[in-house]
Amino acid sequence: MTESIWALVPFKDAPFAKSRFHEHLEVTQRGLLAQAMLRDILSALNYSSRIAGTVVCSSSAYVKELNYENTVLFEDHSSNLQTALTQACEFTKKQFNNPTICIVPADIPLVQSHDIDELLEQHHEVTVVPDAQQLGTNALVISPPIVFELVFDGQSFVPHLENIRAAGIEPKIVQMSSFAIDIDHFEDLFDVIEKAPCSQTASVIFNERLLETATAQ
Predict the structure, then answer these.
(1) How many CA atoms lie within 13 Å of 146's alpha carbon, on the beta-carbon side?
(2) What tens digit of pLDDT does each residue of 170-212 get?
């Protein structure tokens, strides 16, 4: 590895996890789903040949119980995700002196380690990966960390491009199918079953009978 690339993953646990699913799933179910998706992305990052380590930005006690190599917790006590991520980026740079940071959400369970390696192979200066609708941002790779204002509100793709260009940088846009699907809508769970049946997220969907529970409500 020629440089130290650290990943940053923001994570919200129950009762705040996947609040859009409140009509379909109970709080406990939403928490189990969020935790499974976090485990999937942490596994992908852990097995990536390009990632030196991962910082999870969260106030969840669950993260402290996880045992992933080279994964540390940055305790987030801010109510603002943008502020929390900026502070986590600064923490990571100070602690690990990393020239590059890769920010990925905790709800993209289709991503595997080779997808992360492919993304980082294509990276140049600031790389942006949009969601399938090109509305949100499902990955940001930044060298050096923090050169523009971060935005994460579900509609961040275009604002990120604007902020990056305002900083005098032309962003590189990379579209990848594995990164395109974030689990923002209940119907997205069917994509997980179809495209990642061996994932921990799919296992929770099956074992907790989440689709059946929702159908019965």
Answers:
(1) 16
(2) 999 999 999 999 998 899 999 999 999 999 999 999 999 998 8
User: Residue 216 contacts by C-beta under 8 Å, 6 or more apart in sequence?
Assistant: none
Q: Please tell me the distance from the alpha carbon of residue 97 to that of residue 204, in angstroms, as a whole number.
A: 37
CA distance 153 to 106: 14
- Report DSSP letters for 184-214, one per residue: -STTHHHHHHHH-TTSHHHHHHHHTTHHHHH
Only one residue has tokens 């930044």, namely 142
What pTM was estimated for this model as a whole? 0.94
Strands (E), 150-193: 172-173
4, 98 Cβ separation under 8 angstroms = yes
List the end-to-end C-alpha distance of the chain, in Å, as a whole number: 50
CA dihedral sign, ordered 3, 179, 76, 89: positive
pLDDT per residue as tens digits for the range 21-51: 988 999 999 999 999 999 999 999 999 999 9
- Whether a cis peptide bond, with omega within 30° of 0, leads into 144 is yes
Compute φ and ψ for 64, nearest 5 degrees. Answer: -65, -25
Question: Please, how many CA atoms are within 13 Å of residue 11, restricted to the half-sphere of its CB?
Answer: 35
Q: Collapsing DSSP states into helix, strand and coil, what is residue 166?
A: helix
**Rounded Cα distance, 55 and 5, in Å:** 11
Nearest alpha carbon to residue 139 among 2, 5, 36:
5
Give 199's contacts (C-beta < 8 A, 6+ positions apart): 36, 40, 109, 110, 192
